[in-house]
Structure formats: C-alpha cells, structure tokens
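User: quick one, fold this
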Amino acid sequence: MSQLKIDHARVNAAIAQAEATTSGEITCVVRAKALDYSATPIGWAAALTLLAPLVTAGMGLMPHAWLEPLLSRVLGWHSIGVSGQYATWEMALGLTALQVVVFAITWAVINFTPLKVWLTPKATRLKKAHEKAMEQFYSRGLHLTAGRTGVMIFCALEEHFVEVIADEGIYSKVDKALWNDTVAVLLKHIKAGDLTTGFVEAVAACGVALAGHFPPNPNNPNELPDVLIEI
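Assistant:
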C-alpha cells in the first residue's frame, strides 16, 4: 500500500479548482510510513519469552540438556542427571539463555517487518491514525481560517485509514454523510491502486459540499497553500 505513487500537480490543481467555488479551505495530507507502534514488538516478544520455557518443556527439550556440554567444555562443569552439583545452575542459565534469544529474535522480526503493523490491534491503529490526523489539522492551521471553514482530507496508507476533518464552521452545516462519501471515494481508488485519482475526486466531492453552504467571498482570499502534503 505504501508504494502507491501520487501526482502532486494533479491534486494541487484539483484543490485550487475546488476552492475557486467556495470560501472553504481544503488541505490534503498523506502519510505513507507506518505510525509508531514500538510497544507491539516488545509486547509480543515478552509474551513469547514467557511461553518459551513451557513450550520447550512440553516438547522434552529442556535447555540445560543442550547447555551442559557447552558449560562442561568452557567452565569445566559436570553434572550427573538432574541431581548433579551444577544441574540447577545449568537449568537456570539454559532457561535464561533461551528467553534472551527468543526475546531478541521476536523483537527484531516484528520490529523490522510489516508484522509490526499487522500484529497491532486494529483499535490501536485507528486511534493512532486519528490522533495523527488531528495533530496535522491543528499544526497546519486549519482551525485558524477567518470563517472556521478549513477541511482536511487525511490518509494513512499503512493503516488503511482515511478521515475528513472539518472545522466547526463547516461541521455544523454540512451533512456528515457527505464526508463519509468523500472517504468512500478515496478508499475506492486506493484499493484500485490509484491514489492520485482518489485524492482528486475526494477534493472535488469536498468542493461540491462546501460550495452549497459556503460560496466564495467577493475577494475569496486563499488562506492556506493549495498543495498535497506528504509526511
């Protein structure tokens, strides 16, 4: 999904064209990289680390059995069955070594592959994507337009998340179903692999929705840049 390309010129032109019919301000933001899910690899690694001794014991593969020959050669340890002088230490060290290896491998595999996103609960992904969308809305100044008529179309590709955020001047007047339709248009084209057309049509749908309630002012100042922003 994150490999989708986008034609900035087409989207920027669509924004300018839509804003010519309304006093509203439209901004598009797309994030191709996954958001931060640092807790996911740690959580899975910790869970598998705790389960590893139980699994190996159930399979009859006690860690001290393979650790004893190594310790015997390196440290001169010798044990006789489980009641030997160093059997307890060997078992403890074996379990510790097993858990360290399991934690390190699990963390690395999840942290550096798409599993980091896939293994994160959907509710967490959506929550983080929404928080990022709101952060962008305020950091880009969409809440500071003269008529409180800023609209942002936000897309997080890795999370498969699209949201339209409208300032209070618009939200109270425009039917929420229109924003849902805008989201649906963008998602349809993303699934078809055409991110550019998705944004162009979503911007056009926003323009139509805004024009009906917020016609252009006589001077119609352009308060925000008519550009697609990649973060």
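User: anything notable?
Assistant: The domain at 8-36+121-230 is CATH 3.10.310.50 (Diaminopimelate Epimerase; Chain A, domain 1).
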